Amino acid sequence: MLGATLVAVALTGCDLETSAPTAASTPAPETALAALGALATRGRAPMTGYDRDRFGQTWLDTDRNGCDTRNDILRRDLTSAQVRPGTGSCLVESGELADPYSGGTLHFSRGPGDVVDIDHVVSLGNAWVTGATGWEIRKRAALANDPLNLLAVDASANRQKGDGDAATWLPSNTAFRCDYVARQVVVKVKYGLWVTPPEKAAIGRILATCPTQRLPTDDSAAPVISPVAPNVPARQPSPTVAVPEGQGRVWFENCDAARAAGAAPVHRGDPGYDSHLDADGDGSGCDS
User: Fold this and answer.
1) Number of independent structural domains in the chain
2) Quick check: is 264 in a domain?
3) Which of 184, 189, 183, 182 is nearest to 211 (CA)?
4) What is the pTM of this model?
5) Which pLDDT tens digit goes with each residue over 48-92?
6) What is d(CA 92, CA 97) in angstroms, rounded to the nearest whole number?
7) 201/57 Cα distance (integer angstroms)
8) Over the stretch 95-111, which tens digit does the pLDDT of each residue have?
């Protein structure tokens, strides 16, 4: 496996060359192309058994700085970030995002209509089918909370991507694609994930346009085994849920009701979950 010396340059855009390397050329050492070539190539494992909870509950505090990972990434990626008074440096209320996926600028404001998601660059579904199936939960939780694998991005782009890999989805901002696939490569190197043949071919096509592209720097140096034990709570239906007329299912009217019932955060598929509780659309409502 490639060592930490491969992790060289932060996201600064592609180093575009006037021509792509020939098929017979050898990638320069310490480039994303060289790292891609060193990754194992295998077919997809089954999605059988996949569930978000297999990666621990949403947004741990794996670096134990007192703030959950989502707010850590918002503080890192937003400019002019405003933090809610009384929450230390944790709960980010608003800020501006230079969105890498669309190339536009977004205003983040916590609450309904929030247009910013935190994306797993190597999606958890992709990780599941390229090696994470057999991991212990602490390694999966480490991947799910590793800043190297996380970016604040346009929510609509993130939801279009879903669990896609580079063969099925790429950012519309073509200037960011070299950085994007290089980040996928470095995450797979770090965690020992493999690439599928279509995924490797797609990443290779992008990197052929920027053959000197380096891997992003692992600034946080987060460990590959989470030091914080994931604690997926037992979830029980609550008598405080409301049943709107004609809807035929239980739901929490708002997050105050969910918290009063001791059910927050409430996850997609649970009794009481509804999209109006999940402002960032990450499948976990009332989590902030």
Assistant:
1) 2
2) yes
3) 182
4) 0.72
5) 999 999 999 889 999 988 899 999 999 999 999 999 888 777 899
6) 13
7) 33
8) 999 999 999 999 999 98
